[in-house]
Amino acid sequence: MLQSFKIVADDKVDDREINRCSFPFLNMNKEVATQVVCIVGTGDFGCSFGKRLLRSGVAVVFGSRNPRQISNRLPEEAQVLSVKQAVAACDIVVLAVRQQHQAALEGELSSVINGKILVDVSNTDKRPAQNSIPNTSELQMLFPQTHIVKAFNMISAWSLQAGLDDACKKVFVCADNVNARRKVMELAWIMGLEAIDKGSLANAKELEEYTHQFFPQWRIPMRVTLGLLFVFYIYTIIQDVLFSYFKHGSDRSFRLAISLPNKAIPSVALVLLSLVYLPGTLAAYIQLHRGTKYSTFPLWLNNWLLVRKQLGLAMFGCAGVHVLISLALPLRVYVYWKWVLSIKHQIDKNWTITFTNIDFWQRDLYLIFGILGFSIVVLLAITSLPSVVNSLSWKEFHFVQSKLGWLSLLLCTAHTICYGGSRFLRSESYHWGIPPLYIPALMLPCTTIFLKLPLLLPFLNRELQMIRQGQTRSRPGVEIEMFYA
Amino acid sequence: MLQSFKIVADDKVDDREINRCSFPFLNMNKEVATQVVCIVGTGDFGCSFGKRLLRSGVAVVFGSRNPRQISNRLPEEAQVLSVKQAVAACDIVVLAVRQQHQAALEGELSSVINGKILVDVSNTDKRPAQNSIPNTSELQMLFPQTHIVKAFNMISAWSLQAGLDDACKKVFVCADNVNARRKVMELAWIMGLEAIDKGSLANAKELEEYTHQFFPQWRIPMRVTLGLLFVFYIYTIIQDVLFSYFKHGSDRSFRLAISLPNKAIPSVALVLLSLVYLPGTLAAYIQLHRGTKYSTFPLWLNNWLLVRKQLGLAMFGCAGVHVLISLALPLRVYVYWKWVLSIKHQIDKNWTITFTNIDFWQRDLYLIFGILGFSIVVLLAITSLPSVVNSLSWKEFHFVQSKLGWLSLLLCTAHTICYGGSRFLRSESYHWGIPPLYIPALMLPCTTIFLKLPLLLPFLNRELQMIRQGQTRSRPGVEIEMFYA
Amino acid sequence: MLQSFKIVADDKVDDREINRCSFPFLNMNKEVATQVVCIVGTGDFGCSFGKRLLRSGVAVVFGSRNPRQISNRLPEEAQVLSVKQAVAACDIVVLAVRQQHQAALEGELSSVINGKILVDVSNTDKRPAQNSIPNTSELQMLFPQTHIVKAFNMISAWSLQAGLDDACKKVFVCADNVNARRKVMELAWIMGLEAIDKGSLANAKELEEYTHQFFPQWRIPMRVTLGLLFVFYIYTIIQDVLFSYFKHGSDRSFRLAISLPNKAIPSVALVLLSLVYLPGTLAAYIQLHRGTKYSTFPLWLNNWLLVRKQLGLAMFGCAGVHVLISLALPLRVYVYWKWVLSIKHQIDKNWTITFTNIDFWQRDLYLIFGILGFSIVVLLAITSLPSVVNSLSWKEFHFVQSKLGWLSLLLCTAHTICYGGSRFLRSESYHWGIPPLYIPALMLPCTTIFLKLPLLLPFLNRELQMIRQGQTRSRPGVEIEMFYA
């Protein structure tokens, strides 16, 4: 043991004194303060890892192939030894060596590593193949007598050095030996990281795949959003620009930049908002039909229910762009030009455009519904932030995301209906028989609202509440379940 | 004891080796790795709880009334025994049975539960009555020799299964036995939850009420906001729509949708903003008068001080809606129609409306004050987010919320004054002798600012600083307090 | 020992039973449940600290100079003793006395404090001088046989009482004795605070300076932003208002309020955005030139790289104000007046202003580029929130902040170019030979984009990737580094 690595020898005080006052949360032994962590590898990650350990008051010894040729990037407080010496001196060994070079260490390590904790922090450069063996399994074969722990692979050298405020602090830890796993978790906590227990080494492959993860929950919602945007945009091009061109020969291609996106984007937002609330309604009908909540939903519905948050955030993005575009409309030269033309026309004809109170009402309701609907959507987006969610009780979260969410769906649907007004009745709105985009866009939200209405009937609502509280419509053989709900 | 529940037997390694390397944070014994948790009840919560425990590497045994009729919802890795057998095998028993069925378990449990930890996760469906006995007290009467722990009642089965990222992770734990409490807290941490020590079982009722909690801090601010909105809206209806109708017979009812809300909402926002900064000013005068900070404020002032954040966020909401409405004004048909009329009128009379530089200045200052005021309010709202607050030092938080907050109050007040301009002097602004809404809305902000001004005088400011640093104007008998401030 | 401070004596149960079921995470002893914390000082902080400890189930005894004259602010559950008695009864002593009064306690404490943990929570009122001795060093000299721990000095009495949701929960802990440090960290965790290990007492001064810290990372970005705003604003005043005044004698001073800020602010935003992405590009060239990432950048570049987040947030603020001002433009009286004049002019001359499709395209592209660019900037700002960052993997964070960030730089640059259009070619845009502000504002973004382009060439990009993965262009003597990367 390296006696020189005792952290802070506080010889003035009799340590027996201090041991009397141990706290319920933990029970420390005097000798544990002398713990040293060995880092094999003096690369980027090893250096950063060592520096952070030292900053957290943990002594560090580096194991290097060539300890005399010490890099100036290594922290000065750390001792550098040969790999063998370093490993022999410590009980926790962090293997900060690229995967392809690990096997080369077998000779040096195998004699000293037995019974120690070997932390594998490595990552593959590319996404590992489906049937590949995780690196930890290969390490376990190399060093069968060692406690292999997979951890820290999601932490980058950069974030260890630059400070942890601006990066992910989660450290997933898995190991077969529970003691080894807990010790590495503790090491992570001491470093100011957030250790999360991921069970046995069987999950190591999952951990290695995590670093290659790229918004997995967003894959389907993003495809739905982009797909809808594309389809709706093409729809408006046909219904508006192509129709004008072929029918009247007028070139309205400049509408591709602002006018048509401001039809396609809000339509997508409305459809996405209804996609957030439709699956819950379908699930309620299934529960009512089956009379129990203890049966799994079809897989497609389950997956749909799980991406509601992402669909809602995509809706928030679309709605936000729609609001910005709409508010910027008066800044358009085209709008200015049309106003000038309209006023000149009125003056030439000595005629004044007239509006009834109903016109004012319709247009103002259209605006206020949209504004209130968007305001609620902003509130929903804010309460989706991880730190806000964690400060809400279940009842509060449910009120905001369900009650207020339905209100925003109603307001946004009303906004779209008021926008159209009675225009859908006029034949000139239909180009080549194709209705304006807002009419197909209203289909799904209206369906969702109509499906929801029966569930608000008192007797259906009461039965749904009972089912959701875990009760089961009495059928022979399920009595036992009711008892233990 | 169920020897089969040993988690990961790692027989290849000599465990004496690994025990040498224990870390200061914890001190693990070899045998503890064999811990098993018993879950009584195979309902929704029990299943989800068991699955999460298993995922975190804790072995689980279910106690069921009918262990041979095993539900397919139970995790495969868990063993299912009779209630008696399961409880006998474990030291921590989670009672995942509805409250009304718990008494029925007395016979089966009483012989095996003594000296064990019994975790009560149950919740009442309705808010418990004021004088009702908490469920834990009834359990303690049923099983007097058992360590009852109340915990996990705020966690839903859904969030345990669907992943914890999108839900509240707080687990309040209370128990009379400190060891039992700490062990359950530890269990929560292992599951990836955030355990919070809530002291003895006397607080169990508070915990049971938590799930029925519904924005308790928002109750008064919400009532103030909605009350002000209602009163101000009615005020504008009388001052504007009803006056026009009875005086001129003109139907301006369409102004109910946009125009009047855009008078009421910003007025409420301004009053709310002054309500955020008024109580602190009053508190300063009380402290100056009493000459010490070591005296409690009147209860109403204390409660007011505690809801400042909520008042500020309600103000942010109102201000946001006001901004959206204001920016959408040019989109209104009514505004377009008025412009057309105005231009036609100017052309008919061959007269051009003229504006002085002062008109331009007034209107532009009005806009820029509002924009800057709102920008600061957005900044205040962002720094109210839990995760941002936690990254600010006290001095930084104080600068943003106090200094910048006062600046936003000044800007918003100036915005409202510039909006009115010299209109408040003209008699035609007063309908039925009632002034426009912005005049009463300016009362409170102006009062707040005038009350603040004397506190900025150097000698008063210095004395206030001294008092807030814990000094007391010398009076006989309080010397001791100065010493230990 | 004060036997009366045993928390919750649960005599009914045989405690040997419960000790069998200890969990891997911790190992509690029966006797530790009797822990008491002593607080010396009955001032504001002491009282709040004691109340919070009691709420978390930790017994508290106050040490007061005059224990019979007990303040009514002290919690009722706490016992109050003389300082000597209180300290003698506990092993952890929290010194909640102002620094200037601590020396006066030497006589009373020195006989009983030896071997105990003394927690110094004190702060200086003013920023400590560069060469001053930290308070802990003076305490250590007063009580040489004591374990001094510096902690809790960043927590305010107010936040301890008012609840911890709305304040910083970080507790930096430093001490020379590791056991003492860990025990105080544990105490902080029990109180619901977030303890962070800051190593030995040598860091105490740093902790004392923390409370006086005022946005240290913002100092340079704020100066850059305000400096640019000032310079650009003056530039527009000269180029616009002064030129009009001296050349045409027209008073356009009202443009100072809205028009000129809306030129200066977006120009600053564009320059700030390019300042976010320029240092990374320069760093890439340095890495390519040196052929390794294992060499430190020049200090100026390193500091620049570290403030990119702050520069980006300052850019977000400027962009947000620019958006608000731009959308509010149609509300200006000046704009209305100019429209009226323009329409009257067209009618008088019986002439209609004409726009080509290209005019419409240019103006609409200008708007949509700005809207999309700003939308992405909002997304970048949201993913800068601490709680969101912590939920992103490194790859996801990199995609948002790098890929999407570059896209926003491209869009905002295109937005500015489209705004100018062909105006920069016309001589009347140049006043006194000075070009409009958007032309110099475009310099840096265009330079940044042009510098980035070569890095996208496949062979340079591949080499950069290799270097960033830790490989070094082979040079003699650095082989060892490649091995341990």
Automatic annotation (TrEMBL), chains A, B, C:
The record's Gene Ontology cellular component field reads: endosome membrane; plasma membrane
Gene Ontology MF terms in the entry: cupric reductase (NADH) activity; ferric-chelate reductase (NADPH) activity
InterPro entries with a match to the protein in the record: Fe3_Rdtase_TM_dom (IPR013130), NAD(P)-bd_dom_sf (IPR036291), P5C_Rdtase_cat_N (IPR028939), STEAP_metalloreductase (IPR051267)
Residues passing through the membrane, by range: 224-245, 265-286, 311-331, 365-392, 437-460
UniProt KW Transport keyword: yes
Q: Which UniProt keywords apply?
A: Copper, Endosome, Ion transport, Iron, Iron transport, Membrane, Oxidoreductase, Transmembrane, Transmembrane helix, Transport
Catalytic activity field: 2 Cu(+) + NADP(+) + H(+) = 2 Cu(2+) + NADPH; 2 Fe(2+) + NADP(+) + H(+) = 2 Fe(3+) + NADPH
Q: Where is the Ferric oxidoreductase domain?
A: 268-412
Superkingdom to which the source organism belongs: Eukaryota
The topology of this chain with respect to the membrane is:
Multi-pass membrane protein
Record-linked Gene3D superfamilies: NAD(P)-binding Rossmann-like Domain
- Gene Ontology biological process terms in this record: copper ion import; iron ion transport
What subcellular locations does the record give?
Endosome membrane
**Cofactor field:** FAD; heme b
- What Pfam families would the database entry show? F420_oxidored, Ferric_reduct
- The record places domain Pyrroline-5-carboxylate reductase catalytic N-terminal at 37-123
Family to which this protein belongs: Belongs to the STEAP family.
**Which named protein is this?**
STEAP family member 4
Per the UniProt entry, what species is this protein from, by scientific name? Eptatretus burgeri
